[in-house]
Structure formats: structure tokens, C-alpha cells
Amino acid sequence: MNIAVLIKQVPVSNNVSVDPETHALVRGSSEGMINPADLNAIEEAIRLKEKTDGEVVVFTMGPPDAEKSLRDAMAIGCDKSCLITDRAFAGGDTIATAKVIVKAIEKYGKFDLLLCGALSSDGATGQVGAMIAEYLNLPHVAEVQSIEYNPSEGSMIKAVKKYQGTSVKLQCELPALVTVCFGCNEPRLATLRTKRAAKSKPMEVYTNAELSMVAEDTGLTGSPTVVTDSFAPKHTKKAKMLLGTPQEMAKEIMELIENEKGKN
Questions:
Q1: Dihedral pair phi/psi, residue 115, rounded to 5°
Q2: pTM of the prediction?
């Protein structure tokens, strides 16, 4: 089974800067790492590969330093990678992002299964995976806990997901796209040996010279949604320490509650 894993490099911390004009994150202003849910998608892909042979190719779209996340993914066990990078793609919304990634996947080759994290830690829209499936005309199963595949059953996978406290098993024909929940498995760790090996694993780099995307489909120009403003939320609530006997503190708590009710 040939599997593509779509990952995103996200900031390590919340200490990132925002472009004052576009209101987009300046991704070069902070150290990046693989989005946590994408690590679960990588683990799921490697487990499937180990059962079926084939290979795992990891894709990401971002600035040139996103190569680090691709090398990290290959150190974990992915076989090849593809970096999609060009200033023309910068600042795109989820629609523009999905269009570029689809173009890169189509250029790279055919895959039996596409996996990605259900949500990213910086945006958490959960939209890009579904959009890619739609543009590729593939069936899509969202927010799964695990994937089962038996070669004897033909081109069919079974995806297990949680729904209202119950586990639900869905059958899906391949090729398909599946988004994987954060924390659904235990991602393996890289070793010094695998980190060294990752440096020599093949990596394709696609810029707009290779993808030939028109301006109307990429970046800010190709984004139907626009961020008009961004700001840090104001924190007005304060903690109040209570001292005294349980009865005295209970009385003071009631007074505080009544005061808050009076403000609303």
C-alpha cells in the first residue's frame, strides 16, 4: 500500500509574530515542529506499511525551513518526502492551501491512501483534509481512532471512530483520505541512527515553477476568506484568595457570586 501523509509545521510555542497587514502568522519567526495530530497520522501510516509493504511519502507546504519537519518524519519511518514551497503560496486560506497540495499530490504520483491529522494546533479548522478529498474526488473519513486493512478483502479499509461515546466502524473503498485524531496511538520516536539515515532519504521540492498554479488559486489572491483583524484577548478576571473558617469562606463566596450576577 502506497500512502501519502500530509503534515503541517506549526510553531513550537505561542510566541510568534503576526504580519500587521495580512494578519497571517509569520512562520519564520518561531521554531517549527510537526503538528501533534500529524504524528499520529504518521504512526498509523507506518503501521499499515509494515503490514502491506509499499511506501510512505510525507508532504508539507510551508517555508523552506519546513524541510526540518520532513526530515523528522523520515527519521520516524517515512520513506520519501515532498516540500511544497513558494512565496506565491504564502498567506493562503484553507481553500488555497488545499488546491496547491492537491496539485503537488497529482504531480507526485498515485496513492492508495492519504492520511493527515484531524486538527492543527495553530489553526484547528479541520478543513484542509476534507477539501483535498473533495478536489481529488476521494471518499473521506474524518477524525478516526484507528485504521484496519486486510489485503484479502481487496481495496477496502475499516476506520474506527468515536461518536457520542460509542465506537463506530466504517468501511471505505480505496483510494481514500482519512484524518486521524490526536492521541489515538503512541507515535514512535526517532533514534540517532534513523536521524542520520533521514538525511539521505529522497526529498522532492515543488515550487510554482513545477506546479504552474495561477495567481487566482494561490496565496492571498486565491483566498476567498480574509482575516481583517487580529488581537490578543484581554484578560480581566482576577483570582481572589479567601481566608477564614469554612463558614466564613462559604459566605464570602456567595457574596462574590451575587456581585457577579449583579454585573450581568
A1: -125, 145
A2: 0.83
